[in-house]
Amino acid sequence: MKKFIAILSLIIAFTLSTNAQMHDPVKWDTSVDKVSENEFDLVITANIESGWHLYSQHIPEAPIRPIPTSFKFEEEKRDFELVGKTTEGEGHEEHDPVFEMVIKYFEDQAVFKQRVKILSDSKITIKGVLEFMVCDDINCLPPTDVDISFDVGGQKKEDKSFLQTTVIPAEDGTLTPEQKTSVNKVEKEDIIPEKSGNRSLWTLFILSFFAGFAALLTPCVFPMIPMTVSFFTKQSKNKAIGIRNAIIYGVSIIVLYVLLGTVITAIFGADSLNALSTNVWFNIIFFLLLIVFAVSFLGAFEIVLPSSWGTKVDSQADRGGLIGIFFMALALAIVSFSCTGPIVGTALVAAAAQGGIAPVISMFGFSLAIALPFALFAAFPGWLNSLPKSGGWLNTVKVVLGFLELALAFKFLSNADLVLQAHWLEREVFIAIWITVFGALALYLFGKIKLPHDSDLDHISVGRLSLGLLVGAFTIYLIPGLWGAPLKLISGFPPPMHYSEAPYGVGFTKLGGGESASHGDIPEGAYLGPHDIISFHDYEIGMAYARKVNKPVLLDFTGWACVNCRKMESKVWSDPRVLQILNNDIVLISLYVDDKRLLPKNKQYTSEITGKKIKYIGNKWSDFQIKKYKANAQPYYVLLDHNGNNLNEHIAYNPDIEEYLAWLNNGIKRFEK
């Protein structure tokens, strides 16, 4: 009975994986919006099927990363010029554990805009090409190029077009004349507002709130709570007025910081901040700023604004009324800048990486944490008695923040190093620096290191001891990372595993042994693929080798930027039983559909299926997959004999190791018969 259920499950899995493999999840739509007499916005809208996501234009530079959406406009005729860069909506941002980076993507709908200035009085046609990549939880599609065009100027008549990205062929692989038309003009309906990245904004708000709470516990801010609340309660005619004034004071603090976030967004632009955050020089400059902030927090010097600013603001605070209260809030911001400035700067840069209104949301969360105590303690003055007294613990908070700023600084230096591929700050060096920083922090918390402004420590409080133990445990956790441990708790902070002096750990290979895996001589035209499996990247060469060694072929349609391909390789192929088969019982041919190397001129051709020019190696393998297997998603696996005949049904993404193993064994047995 168990065997019957297993076989039935396998048949269902095969059936699901082989049906409806041609995916067409994105429909592109274009329109033109008039801005002025000679300026227009070219609007490109992606309508995305549920469950799929489209990658942003702004993906951090890395050796292996998803393909970002990109736009190229033909400017040869010089009858128009581009104004600024192509902008995009907010989208979503999440840390991708496969690529070890924060990646922005869109669901449901994405709207891109490119402003142009027309240099001609007559109506012109602007042509361009967009490239994009989409994935869902199971499949990734190869990078796709789409031609776009806009009729602009003249009568200023809005042009609206509908572009279909992929054409599904008939069963025999042919297209009807209607299908061969890649662009069909249709009337465009009103654009649905793009779904905002509410989740990431909420996350940013919460993190900024905790950053504000940390700033509240610094020596520059915390002592101001009882002083300010006492001032309002004593100077007010009654308790109600005191509470009202304290609330106005708290609201003024929020307004000041939100105004700062608004100004930052207005000056730099919602989308340019995102692009700036991946810039090499920006990351280097911010690394230096964080080092300065950290040294200041550790007690080397104080960062203060000009004293004349504080004097002028204090004079305005004496005016009384709402204006006086507002200037009191401004005075607090200026006086406490030496403590809050570094934290505000860090929060703003984190928000800048997200773009949109993120800086405003970040400053709202930050200022809310600072403003709340003033309003609450004014409403309940008796709570002031429960506040801990100011003392050396406030300086301890400041020093701890200094160590955290120091550790964070090297993340920005690492970003710049990864983009430049300079290999100055490889994974081992980064982890060694963090071990040193957090080890020193642990010694400080245990009272073994004393810094300027620290008072004498007769004993260690329970809270300080607990934090010291936690930091010490984290430091010990980091140490195995020097020998190749994945360190999943800090995934995304250090450089990826491959960006290392020893990519598999000191003395180890991907196979996990203490000695290098031995395959003998690697066959001509072969490469060491995932887990050091010998693989071919060319179909004909791989098939010829399979005939020579009399083994079946595993055809692996994959991509460098395919998330689920990497998941299959790391979770399924790494299983010792699967790995043994891939190393010894089959010939692996991995065809990368996003390989951007140009084909020789004499081997470039026009696809019979899509009618597009096949110029790149990746285009060739993608076209081959569509033509032969009626599929366009990756990963996609086919077991073949030496004549290219299927040994069993094809399968796609399936993280179940037992099912994948059964599928491999089934194909091998059929080959041996």
Beta-strand segment tally: 20
Structural class: alpha+beta
Q: Please, how many domains? A: 3
| Major sheet description | 6 strands, antiparallel
> Portion of residues in helices?
40-55%
Distance between the termini: 26 Å
Beta content:
15-25%
- How many alpha or pi helices? 19
Describe this structure in words.
- With 673 residues, the protein is of the alpha+beta class.
- It has 3 domains: 142 residues, Immunoglobulin-like, CATH 2.60.40; 291 residues, no CATH class; 147 residues, 3-Layer(aba) Sandwich (Glutaredoxin).
- It is 44% helix and 16% strand.
- The protein has 19 helices and 20 strands.
- The strands form 5 sheets. A 6-stranded antiparallel sheet has the order 5-8-2-1-12-13, with no helix packed on it. A 5-stranded mixed sheet has the order 14-15-17-16-20, sandwiched between helices.
- The longest helix is centred in the middle third of the chain and has 30 residues.
- The two termini are 26 Å apart.
- The N terminus is likely disordered.
